[in-house]
């Protein structure tokens, strides 16, 4: 092993790719935040993807505001929460291992220099150091109870470059399993001040993504909630959304009898 390879192995060994809060909480809820951070581990490009700071602060690198909402929502639900600790541009935890968008080289007009020449060995190293440990930990949390309900929190940009503005305040995403998501969607659509998207700004789920892997495949009730990131830019806005969503989630779950 070369000196450089040995150094990278040591960096990977000392790296924690996820954070868990509230592991001792006992409710059946589990909150996850796949795109919580814009962290680039030291073993990837020396800690840089070669992008300017402005790009690393954008939605292409993580989901702004989603981590704060996830932590606060989990506290309201007496639930554990797991959050990624690596940028989605390092490797995307909300993609299956065979998904072509797992390791992005171009996103919303920005070329990712450190990914431009990433080969199969680099992809495998990032899977081993980041993606797989995150999912292993998530599954351990999900399996702590037989009746786990998985809530995945994401945020989205109000407008992609060159595209029309997105009018929705919040979107509810679902695919094959609509048992919880569809009643939640209908409940949120009753809120007079909210524009609620059904499978917006994206449609459903992808094979092998977080919900598919840890909920649909295991028969666990689930929902993916997308919140427009300009609405959760501050800590107080994040707390507001968490406090608003928590009782709605509880009421809908009770009404469905799941």
Throw out a few tags for this protein.
alpha/beta; 33% helix; two-stranded antiparallel ribbon; 258 residues; single chain; Aminopeptidase
**Tally of DSSP helical segments:** 7
Low-confidence stretches: 1-7
State the CATH architecture: 3-Layer(aba) Sandwich
CATH class category name: Alpha Beta
**Could you give the order of the helices and strands?**
HEEHHEEEHEEHEHEH
Supply the helix-strand structural class: alpha/beta
Number of strands: 9
CATH superfamily: Zn-dependent exopeptidases
Return the CATH topology.
Aminopeptidase
Number of domains: 1
Strand numbers in spatial order across the main sheet: 1-3-2-6-9-7-8
Proportion of residues in extended strands: 15-25%
Shape: globular
The N- to C-terminal Cα distance equals: 53 Å
- Main sheet specs: 7 strands, mixed
What level of helicity do the residues show? Answer: 25-40%
Average pLDDT figure = 93
What Rg is obtained from the alpha carbons, in whole angstroms? 18 Å
Architecture overview:
The chain has helices at 3-13, 53-56, 66-76, 120-142, 181-188, 210-216, 235-256; strands spanning 18-21, 29-33, 81-84, 106-107, 110-111, 149-156, 170-173, 196-198, 222-228. With 258 residues, it is α/β, with parallel strands linked by helices. The chain has one domain (16-256): Aminopeptidase. The protein has a 7-stranded mixed beta sheet with strand order 1-3-2-6-9-7-8, sandwiched between helices. A two-stranded antiparallel ribbon has the order 4-5. Helix 3 (66-76) crosses helix 7 (235-256) and helix 5 crosses helix 7 (235-256). The longest helix is centred in the middle third of the chain and has 23 residues, at 120-142. The protein is globular.
């Amino acid at each position: 092993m070369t000196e450089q390879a040995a150094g990278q192995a040591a960096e990977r060994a000392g790296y924690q790719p996820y954070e868990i809060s509230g592991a001792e909480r006992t409710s059946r809820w589990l909150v996850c935040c796949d795109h919580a951070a814009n962290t680039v581990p030291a073993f990837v490009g020396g800690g840089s993807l070669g992008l300017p700071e402005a790009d690393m602060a954008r939605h292409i690198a993580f989901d702004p505001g989603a981590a704060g909402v996830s932590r606060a929502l989990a506290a309201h639900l007496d639930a554990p929460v797991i959050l990624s600790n690596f940028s989605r541009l390092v490797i995307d935890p909300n993609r299956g291992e065979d998904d072509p968008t797992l390791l992005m080289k171009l996103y919303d007009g920005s070329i990712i220099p450190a990914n431009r020449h990433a080969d199969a060995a680099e992809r495998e190293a990032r899977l081993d150091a980041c993606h797989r440990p995150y999912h292993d930990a998530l599954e351990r949390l999900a399996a702590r109870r037989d009746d786990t309900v998985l809530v995945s929190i994401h945020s989205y940009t109000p407008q992609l470059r060159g595209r029309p503005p997105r009018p929705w305040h919040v979107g509810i995403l679902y695919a094959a399993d609509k048992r919880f998501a569809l009643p939640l969607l209908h409940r949120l659509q009753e809120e007079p001040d909210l524009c609620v998207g059904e499978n917006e700004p994206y449609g459903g789920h992808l094979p092998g993504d977080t919900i598919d892997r840890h909920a649909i495949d295991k028969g666990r009730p689930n929902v993916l909630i997308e919140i427009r990131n300009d609405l959760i830019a501050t800590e107080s806005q994040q707390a507001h959304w968490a406090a608003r969503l928590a009782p709605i989630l509880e009421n809908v779950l009770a009404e469905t009898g799941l």
